Amino acid sequence: MTQSKRERLLSLRRLADEALQEAEVLLQATHFAGCVSRAYYAAFYAASAALLSIGLEFGSHSAVLAAFGQHLARGKPFEPELRRVLARRFAARRSADYDPERRPDRRSAQEAVREARVVLEAVGTFLGESGSETHPGDSD
Fold it and tell me: What is the pTM assigned to this prediction?
């Protein structure tokens, strides 16, 4: 893995961790829409890091979700349910950010944080604690 790719991977992992922490703070402050949005971004950054670790990088949210399902969440290394979690988080984030008539409540915000945590833990295990582990298919 090249130095620049390693730095990008570590940066994505930091962004994921920060977004999850922000979601937790927003949940405690009862800012549920912001919580749901930041929880999604935590999962999105983690999924982006997992894809980068196998040499894939994308410029759109939908491309990241599709590629995660196609390349990583087919039973190995991740179960297909993780792709469904990402899709739920994406839909919930869009609703929280853009639909003033469908505001998230405490329960949905708690679920967002819980599911984001599941994604971050699974990706963290996949990447290894250092964040610099390489995987089959990593061409750098």
Answer: 0.89
Asked whether the beta carbons of 86 and 43 are under 8 A apart, the reply is yes
C-alpha to C-alpha distance for 38 and 77, rounded to whole angstroms = 25
Nearest to 48 by CA among 90, 15, 97, 81: 15
Q: Which domains does the chain have, with CATH numbers?
A: 3-127 (1.20.120.330)
CB neighbours of residue 100 within 10 Å: 8
CB-CB contact of 23 with 6 (8 Å): no
**In contact, 110 and 92? CB cutoff 8 Å:** no
Q: Which residues pair with 77 in a beta bridge?
A: 73
Concatenating the DSSP letter of every residue in 90-138 gives: HHHHHHHHH-TTS---HHHHHHHHHHHHHHHHHHHHHH-TTS----TT-
Check residue 57 and give its pLDDT. 95
Give, for 52, the enclosing helix (H) or strand (E): helix 32-53
